[in-house]
């Protein structure tokens, strides 16, 4: 389901975003594009450049609010680096009015760790979105702690769906692998575009042409995958003429030491790192 299938975002109270960097900023853009009243959004980020702060103010989004001036936040969304959690969690705690839900997108940081820094019984949702959230084409894996009420889960769902598709998990243990597949995944696809361009240069193309061809190929293949009911395997086979050029390339990519085992190792490394960040 996408942002556009859920109607204007009406959280029933302010949303406080703590950390408005690449991921937090993408989430906020999704909420505003999803119809959130800017007057209900507040950003806490001491590292915001002055021009970004001014731009938020122009759009009616409050920055650096005093917790006492935000009446009953409906949700506090934590999007700082995992290494900053000890510093940022007490800030989040000050905004956590009774009934508010904390939504954390921090890689590795467990719901138990988050709850330990919040008022007793606080509702915690742990989520792993990805940066295509900025264009409502993200995908998020999320898990709700036992303390989260159905209404709080519905609000977290709406906030995350403003960025795209949401997959709710019953088992928090799965979120490390979700991070390895879809949280970090856009970087793998961008690397594919980079590597394809480099390979094109090595095959004799001018660099700018190779860059344009590689980018358009990744974009087009992604869009075809989105629009087509076919599986990725069928779409791949549709490109592959018997004994043709694609078959020659796939013999390399699908060899025992090819793309799949390489990606398996990459996803395992990301998953392991997510577990390590849990401390
Ligand atoms: N970038 C990505 O693709 C994804 C990131 N995440 C998670 O999102 C979180 C943020 O990552 P990015 O946005 O990439 O990092 P970032 O460095 O772009 O953003 C972090 C923001 O937090 C701010 N900040 C630092 N200390 C703060 C504090 N005490 N209070 C309030 N704000 C503070 C910084 O000024 C910065 O703007 C991480 O925990 C990461 O695991 C999750 C999914 C995808
Ligand atoms: O690289 C990271 O740790 C974060 C989590 C998923 C994407 N970026």
From TrEMBL:
GO molecular function: pyrroline-5-carboxylate reductase activity
SUPFAM superfamilies (alphabetical): 6-phosphogluconate dehydrogenase C-terminal domain-like, NAD(P)-binding Rossmann-fold domains
Major location category of this protein: cytoplasm
Compartmental location: Cytoplasm
Domain Pyrroline-5-carboxylate reductase catalytic N-terminal: 15-108
Keyword set includes Oxidoreductase: yes
One Pfam family this sequence matches: F420_oxidored
Pyrroline-5-carboxylate reductase dimerisation domain segment(s): 172-277
UniProt family annotation: Belongs to the pyrroline-5-carboxylate reductase family.
Name of the protein in its database record: Pyrroline-5-carboxylate reductase
């Amino acid at each position: 389901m996408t942002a556009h299938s859920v109607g204007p975002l009406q959280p029933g109270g302010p949303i406080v975003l703590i950390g408005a960097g690449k991921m937090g900023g993408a989430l906020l853009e999704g909420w505003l594009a999803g119809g959130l009243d800017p007057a209900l959004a507040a950003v806490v980020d001491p590292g915001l450049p002055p021009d970004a702060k001014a731009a938020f103010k122009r759009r009616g989004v409050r920055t650096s609010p005093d917790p006492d001036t935000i009446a009953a936040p409906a949700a506090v969304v934590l999007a700082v680096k995992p290494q900053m959690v000890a510093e940022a969690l007490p800030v989040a705690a000050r905004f956590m009015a009774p009934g508010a839900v904390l939504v954390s997108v921090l890689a590795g940081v467990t719901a138990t760790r988050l709850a330990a820094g919040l008022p007793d019984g606080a509702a915690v949702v742990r989520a792993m979105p990805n940066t295509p959230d900025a264009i409502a084409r993200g995908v998020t894996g999320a898990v709700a702690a036992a303390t989260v009420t159905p209404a709080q889960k519905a609000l977290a769902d709406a906030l995350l769906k403003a960025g795209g598709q949401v997959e709710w998990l019953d088992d928090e243990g799965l979120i490390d692998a979700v991070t390895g597949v879809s949280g970090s995944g856009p970087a793998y696809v961008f690397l594919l575009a980079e590597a394809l361009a480099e390979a094109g240069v090595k095959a004799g193309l001018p660099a700018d042409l190779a860059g344009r061809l590689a980018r358009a190929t990744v974009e087009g293949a992604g869009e075809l995958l989105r629009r087509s009911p076919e599986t990725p395997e069928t779409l791949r086979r549709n490109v592959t003429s018997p004994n043709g050029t694609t078959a020659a390339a796939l013999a390399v990519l699908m060899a025992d030491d090819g793309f799949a085992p390489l990606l398996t190792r990459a996803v395992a490394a990301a998953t392991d790192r997510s577990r390590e960040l849990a401390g």
